[in-house]
Amino acid sequence: MPCCDIQALLAEAEQELQPVFKGIEQTEQAVFQRVLAAFKEHRVAVQHFAPTTGYGYDDIGRDTFEKLLASALGCEDALVRPSIASGTHALATCLFGLLRPGQVLLAASGRPYDTLESVIGLDGAQGNGSLKDFGVDYRQVDLTKEGLPDLDGIRRMLREEPKIRVVAVQRSRGYAWRNALTVKQIGEICTAVHEIAPHAIVMVDNCYGEFVDSVEPTQVGADVIVGSLIKNPGGGLAPTGGYIAGKHELVEMCAYRLTSPGIGREVGSYAASYQPFYQGLFMAPHTVAQAVKGSVLFGKVFQKLGYEVSPTPDEKRSDIIQAIRFGSAEPLIAFCKAIQYASPVDSFVTPEPWAMPGYADPVIMAAGTFVAGASIELSVDAPIRPPYIGYLQGGLTYAHVKLALQEVLASILTQ
Ligand SMILES: *Cc1c(COP(=O)(O)O)cnc(C)c1O
Predict the structure, then answer these.
(1) Is there a contact between 321 and 170 (Cβ–Cβ < 8 Å)?
(2) Which residue CA neighbors atom 13 of ligand 1 most closely?
């Protein structure tokens, strides 16, 4: 790669991106309006931040935050807990809460996110308490060659298999070279599903998608959405947690799975303050917009340098991820190292590819984050295998992402 004037390259990219940035700001404004209205509607006050201990009966901070996030996501109800350990835990709780033995789960956007394979029982393991262990069967309809929902395929599957109870849709690209599904596309899936199977539940894995668009999947027909608080909706401040949001009766079923039948959402204390959850949600529309702008800038600059990027800078975004195809291992590894060195935490650490459990190839991860593993903060994940794609996401501020990009360019353009 020939060396070039990095400052000039960045200035030109930013100039050309002005219309795209303007659109991101408009979305932020629309989302923020909904979020602030929710704070007012639920009369959030200092008393809601207070910690609780023990059973947590009538924990007003917890109960109010659940109503608040439900409104912010345009939903009837939400189960939101610090005790939901991750996005996978939230998704598993939802699937086990909604499905019963003899029923069928349909994945309508192809093979789901890696960590769900063990939950569903696709990893071949036996006796680990997967859905398969409990007699829940699985079907899958892949996206089309163009990466679009296969609506005819979904309709056909629903007609053939009346036992389908939950239709799972993954909004984000995850770690695959495909576009995130837009909320509009998800709405089309919901319409197709409910026409043929009115009682089927559409569950959207909303991880990485929250607040990237001005509407959420539950506002276009999804019955339930699921996500992680150390991604978008935590705004970079929530220290842990996850959510399940949507129709009231479905959220209740998930609550009975999370704690216990009969008790459900009535218990659950938190001995630290709820304040970071509330403030994180307040910040989330802005944080997400900063991360999306950062992703677009990376996409634009790498596209100018001749790399293949997905999505392209002008494509409509529905998650915060920017994928860049490096073509060989060396620049990809240099890229990840440069991101790590540009982090506020652990900037002196050198990430190396390692054999992560559950992955066929070594994976390199760069994340110098305040909240451990939080991918709303600037981070990269990359399996070391052809075609050597880096998946970049997050960034609490655009200034940070831009500075990291400068350092990345300095590192790989001089190689
Ligand atoms: C992050 C993510 C998950 C859940 O991952 P955790 O690491 O368990 O939080 C699930 N699906 C998608 C698309 C994700 O991005």
Answers:
(1) no
(2) 174
Instruction: Quote the CA–CA distance of 179 and 176 in Å, as a whole number.
Output: 8
Structure-derived torsion over alpha carbons of residues 256, 260, 265, 268, reported in degrees to the nearest 10: -150
Give first-to-last CA distance, the chain, whole Å. 8
Mutating to test ligand 1, I would choose from 117, 169, 208, 228 the residue with most ligand atoms within 8 A of its C-beta, which is 228
Looking from the CA of 235 toward its CB, the CA atoms found within 13 Å total 18
The atom of ligand 1 lying closest to the CA of 170 is 13
Establish whether residue 240 lines the binding site of ligand 1, counting it when its CB lies within 6 angstroms of any ligand atom: no
88 Cα nearest atom in ligand 1: 8
Say if pTM beats, i.e. exceeds, 0.90.
Answer: yes
Which mean pLDDT values do the consecutive 10-residue runs of the chain (415 residues) have? 80 98 98 98 98 98 98 98 97 98 98 93 92 98 97 98 98 92 98 98 98 98 98 98 98 98 98 98 98 98 97 97 97 96 97 83 94 97 94 97 97 81
Residue matched to tokens 């300095």: 410
Residue with tokens 């990376």: 298
Cα angle vertex 231, ends 314, 67, to 5°?
A: 110
Altogether, the residues listed in the chain come to a count of: 415
Indicate the SS3 state at residue 101: coil
Q: Looking at residue 325, what DSSP letter applies?
A: E
Å from CA of 88 to ligand 1 middle: 6
φ/ψ of 168, rounded to 5, equals -95, 135
H/E stretch holding 244: strand 242-246
